[in-house]
Amino acid sequence: GFNLLGIINFMLILSIYFKLKRFFQIEKEYWNKSLIYPMFLFLFILLLTMPFSINLATSIRGFIGLLSQISLYFMAYLMIAKNKNAEKEIFGFMVSVFFILSICGVIEYLTDFNIFKWGSITHDVHKDIDVVSSFRRVKTTFNHPSIYAFAMLTFLPLSIYSLVNYEKNVYLYGLSLLLINILLTFTRIGWIAVAIQIIISLFLFKSKKLFGFGLLLIPICLVIGGKITQRLIIDNSAAGRTDFFLYGFSIFKSHPVFGSGFATFLELSSSRFGREVAAHGDYMRMFAETGVFRGLSYLILLFSNLVFAVKHLKKSDFAKVAFLTIIGFMVFSMTDKGLAYSHIFWGILGIYNGLIIRENISKRPLLLTHNRTVSNQSKHAVTL
User: Fold this and answer.
1) Contact 363, 236 (CB under 8 A)
2) Which letter, b or e, does each residue of 183-200 get, where b requires 16 or more Cβ atoms within 10 Å of its Cβ?
């Protein structure tokens, strides 16, 4: 049938292919080896493992989806690095979208109805055949609450940056609504990732606004504290994640070098669990599906972006935003499927890294002028 997402993926890949040709030829000032090379290493090793897949067609489809994500990263990176102020309209659009989604999420929770999916949002928790608890899990336009939580925590660092750097109250309201929505998704790993992001942001930005904002969360947590406790204790779905992890490890032991094939975990799981289940944990999934070398290349890719952000923390606020975004993604991916729907992550990370590169390029002429001035002063002093 007609696959719109597949067409969009191909368009992203073709677009970045033509841009990369020009990028290689005339845009060397935007080349950052610590960012670009790990991407190519990651894709190259995946290509090497493809012929050993137990289902080549499935792996090819998975590769196309992943390549479109990486293409979106490159496209955002190059566009922002080359064009001054290009990010303003993008950020304005993102703020508007997430603000509207957050309002919809609160309405959805209060009414127990999702107008986009046209149905109740209550999820029952069963023990044997009895319902022991239930949760209203908001998801707005997304297919699952955890995907919505992932989108929100990916956008959270930019929302924190806006609150710290701008005086408008709309950013305070926006961040408040965003965090309320993350709580109302009842996605546990999302809560953990966001808590870590907020704690780190207190040290990175050192803003009194953030400390004051943290106090506002206390009454919110008290109102739904009982539900939060039930989600953490009563709902034992986390036990199933352990089974998935152990099964993934057994796949890795059977295929340690090349893996079972990218995107094949879902297919293999049906023989073990009687139904297809996704790999809840991207790190386990990478090692199981693509072997030890691809698993390591994925870790190198993430840590290279993390190290790049750390190196620029003192020079750029967007390095802080990028750092928080990567940390949120890495934590979320420990027990969930961040890589499966990470277009938004790679796209927004490409924007942040492009901004950092652009700032470095814009400061370079000033640095050269400063160095020449210092050099001339030194020569003059020697002459005297």
Assistant:
1) no
2) bbbbbbbbbbbbebbbeb
**Which of 322, 289, 120, 74 lies closest to 201 in space, CA to CA?**
322
Q: Classify 167 in phi/psi space as left (phi over 0), alpha (psi -120 to 50) or beta.
A: alpha
Yes or no: say if 138 and 213 are a contact pair by the CB < 8 Å rule.
Answer: no
Q: Can you tell me the distance from the alpha carbon of 198 to that of 20, in angstroms, rounded to the nearest whole number?
A: 36
At residue 371 the predicted structure's pLDDT band, cuts being 50, 70 and 90, is very low
Please report where in the chains the tokens 């109302």 appear, as a residue. 184
Rounded to an integer, what distance in angstroms lies between the CA atom of residue 320 and that of residue 352?
9
Question: What is the reported pTM?
Answer: 0.85
Q: What would the pLDDT profile of 187-198 be if each residue is shown by its tens digit? A: 888 888 998 998
Provide the β-strand partners of residue 125: 133
- Cα distance between residue 230 and residue 183, in whole Å: 13
CA–CA distance from 181 to each of 153, 186, 196, 211 (Å)?
10, 9, 17, 20
How does pLDDT run across 274-332, given as a tens digit for each residue?
A: 676 777 788 988 999 988 988 899 999 999 999 999 999 988 889 999 999 999 999 99
3-state secondary structure the chain: CCCHHHHHHHHHHHHHHHHHHHHHHHCHHHCCHHHHHHHHHHHHHHHHHHHHCCCHHHHHHHHHHHHHHHHHHHHHHHHHHHCCCHHHHHHHHHHHHHHHHHHHHHHHHHHCCECCCCECCEEEEEECCEEEEEEECCCCCCCCHHHHHHHHHHHHHHHHHHHHHCCCHHHHHHHHHHHHHHHHCCCHHHHHHHHHHHHHHHHHHCCHHHHHHHHHHHHHHHHCHHHHHHHHHCCCHHHHHHHHHHHHHHHHHHCCCCCCCCCCHHHHHHHHHCCCCCCCCHHHHHHHHHHHHHHHHHHHHHHHHHHHHHHCCCCCHHHHHHHHHHHHHHHHCCCCCHHHHCHHHHHHHHHHHHHHHHHHHHHHHHHHHHHHHHHHHHHHHHHC
* Cα 88 from Cα 80, distance rounded (Å): 10
